[in-house]
Amino acid sequence: MPFAADASPTFSTLVEGALSLDDHEAIAAMLARAFPSYDHWYLGARSWAGMQPERRVVARSGDTVVAHAGIRRQFVSVGGVDLLVGAVGMVAVSPILQGTGLGSDLLRHVDVALTGLGVPFGLLEAGEGVQGFYRSAGWLPLEQDGAPITGHYTAFSADGAGVLVSQQEGWLTREVASTLSEWPAGDLHWNGQMV
Questions:
Q1: Where is the N-acetyltransferase domain (predicted)?
Q2: Looking at CB atoms within 10 Å, which of 95, 107, 151, 170 has the fewest?
Q3: Closest alpha carbon to 67 in 57, 81, 78
Q4: Tell me, what CATH number does 98's domain have?
Q5: What DSSP designation does 139 have?
């Protein structure tokens, strides 16, 4: 059910350096609830899993964080071409508010943040179960010759160990200042951790 007008969460887009310790703790607590299989990442004030975001889109209901997305400008390599993207990760809605439309509102605010960062594309990796959600918000699957592209990245554990992963599904982009026709051909290689 949609939020009542007087109960709608308040969204803000914050630079990472503007977050207080209380902010990090509130974000970490919500992310641990939203991603219970990865709750060991979000302990105390550690409010990120991979690379620390540059911007945070945060929705609050009172003092409680109820939705979050992290964004960081970074270069990825696609077919040997360096490409600036707005890497998006840790997109989450508090479990008790999932299905209320808050996630769609969150992605609209992510779009505004990506535009403000001046990147040609947003980029994220999504599991099969949530790809339809992103596609309904305008995110497009990355394909080449009708097949999903392969993305290569280093997956880190909570203790810092890294393993190279190659994955041929779940890569989505959001057109920001460029169109999908301008996306280079070839495999995707992350140059650093994912957000």
A1: 9-159
A2: 95
A3: 57
A4: 3.40.630.30
A5: -
8 A C-beta contact, residue 184 and residue 79: yes
Residue 43 lies in a domain: yes
Are the beta carbons of 119 and 177 closer than 8 angstroms?
yes
Which structure tokens are listed for 91? 């997109």
Q: What digits encode the pLDDT tens for the residues 88-134? A: 999 999 999 999 999 999 999 999 999 999 999 999 999 889 999 99
Q: What percent of the chain has pLDDT over 70?
A: 94
Domains contained in the chain, number: 1
| 144: number of Cβ within 10 Å | 15
Instruction: Encode pLDDT of 133-166 as tens digits.
Output: 999 999 999 999 889 999 998 887 666 667 888 8
1, amino acid identity: M
The answer to whether residue 151 sits within a structural domain is yes
- Give whole-number Cα distances, 97 to 22, 87, 100, 103, in Å: 22, 25, 6, 9
Is 195 among the domain residues?
Answer: no
Residue 155: strand, helix, or coil: strand
Predicted confidence band of residue 4 (pLDDT cuts 50, 70, 90): very low
Nearest Cα neighbor of 140 from 111, 175, 178 is 175
